[in-house]
Predict the structure.
Amino acid sequence: MELFEEGRETISPLAYRVRPTTLEEFVGQAKELAEGRPLRKMIESGDLHSFLISGPPGSGKTTIAAIASKERKSISISATTEHIKDVKKILESITKEKNFSRITQVVVVDEIQHFTRREQDAFLESVERGDIILIALTTENPSFYINSALLSRLSIFIFQKLSNEEIRQIILNAIKEDKYLKDCSINDNALELITEASDGDARRALNILEAVVSNSGKKLIDASDVEKFSGKVLTYGKELHYDLISAFIKSMRGSDPDAALYYMYRMIEGGEDPLYVVRRMVRFASEDIGLKDPTALVIANAAKDAFHFVGAPEGYLALAEACVYLAKAPKDNSLYLAENEVRKTIQETGSLAIPKKLLNPVTKLMEERGYGKDYKYPHNYEGHIVENEAYLPGEIKNKKFLKE
């Protein structure tokens, strides 16, 4: 097949060639783009105001931004490549131009989370004055990365990972509509493989399709062609970082070693720092197991030391061993509850006086003032315990922090 031979150097990627230009062509995000929903109404009416779209890669954020701004003067900025000082110059130029024109320019900022919260202040005044319509795009949870003052001035729309059915439709649409693919077809097995490999990312699905067609030299694409170019890709951003560690901890707490192992390796395969994972296990050993099995803390620390010594990937097995041990260990959070209660009591009662009998009379004056008086040495008593002796300050002498 001679696909892509003519003008090879100038052909745009498939994902760009088949990008929808209207809402009718767009596939996915049925919830946010349903009839009567704010985002759809804003795009259809052309009455734009600043907004942000958060969603995973390949979910349609850039496409919707392009559809929303296509009838307006606009500029696109990538926070991954642009320096904020250059962005400020662009905004200053737009502001000056606005003084002589009634046109409000659209500024699309892709991956805005790559600008720090402080750098994002550069957009605040322009948005507030109405000098620009900002369309901010991010793959991260905006609560974690977006300047709260800026966020409060934007409408927020959340895009979801595309479903398998939506990915399949996008692939079939591409084969039908793209002039370089019009003579191609794909069987169901190949279609399913590309769908699975894309993991809900339309751009990745189209990239795989293009690579397969370009390199197979065949008009009918089957599963064997796809297998050479596909493979699962794990996404791992800020929000998923918190979601996975939460699932990991809760699985260990629920004594499910299989789930705990799964979430641990999801984090590791996604690029998480293994030492972050083992730090959470050390904390878990004290918080959720505690004195029920003190060896758990030893095991967790040993896993940390083993990983330092062996390194990746062999050291992952030491983490797995600790993970399974912690998941199977008996659980008890009384130590964690005691810690919370102690700290709360200290905050509420302040610096209570220590009983004088517990103080060492290191000088004659201190002895005269009663330091150490009436202290009873436990080793002089049966069982090395002084019955009914109080060691806490008088105001809380009967307080019980550790519920055993």
In short: The longest strand covers residues 132-138. The mean pLDDT is 89.
